[in-house]
Amino acid sequence: MGQKKIVIGADHAGYQLKEHLKALLKDGGYDIEDVGTNSEESVDYPDFAKKVTDSVIKNKKLGVLICGTGIGMSISANKVSGIRAALAKDAFTAEMSRRHNDANVLCIGGRTTSPQDAEIIVHNFLTTDFEGGRHEKRVKKIRDIEKHE
Predict the structure, then answer these.
(1) Does the residue 108 lie in any domain?
(2) Catalytic annotation on 100?
(3) Largest CA distance in the chain
């Protein structure tokens, strides 16, 4: 159950939370690919969304993206064909994004989510598998929409 290889990225507003989560996940036995940023110096979130989504597609990993609210990362990530990025504000939405939507990227707000809440959100996202069944046809419809870009 769950995915042990993940890719994580953040902009300057998500840097501190990224570092917190990265340390926690490494201690939990996760293999982490960190694509940056590596400081609180201002950067552009779409650049890091692209790095994470490229790795998710190429390496079949799950991804975690963090910016100030998670909104910019979510919008950017969802522009990439094959990405289903979910902005999760709580443990339940993180779990359901995997269980029912087969989300492959989790977006979190570094300025809107406490480290303690983020730990639970990330845990639920990474340890929940896609349920399939009746949900598979819905995810297929999402993939069909992508074909018409």
Answers:
(1) no
(2) yes
(3) 45
Nearest-angstrom CA–CA distance, 9 and 104: 14
Into how many domains does the chain fold?
A: 1
CA atoms of 57 and 50, how far apart (whole Å): 11
Say if CB 46 and CB 75 are below 8 A apart. no
* 4-55 tens-digit pLDDT: 999 999 999 999 999 999 999 999 999 999 999 999 999 999 999 999 999 9
pTM passes above 0.90: yes
| Catalytic residue chosen out of the listed positions 12, 20, 100, 135 | 100
User: Where do runs of H (alpha helix) occur along the chain?
Assistant: 15-27, 45-59, 71-77, 91-99, 115-127, 134-146
Residue 110 counted as domain residue = no
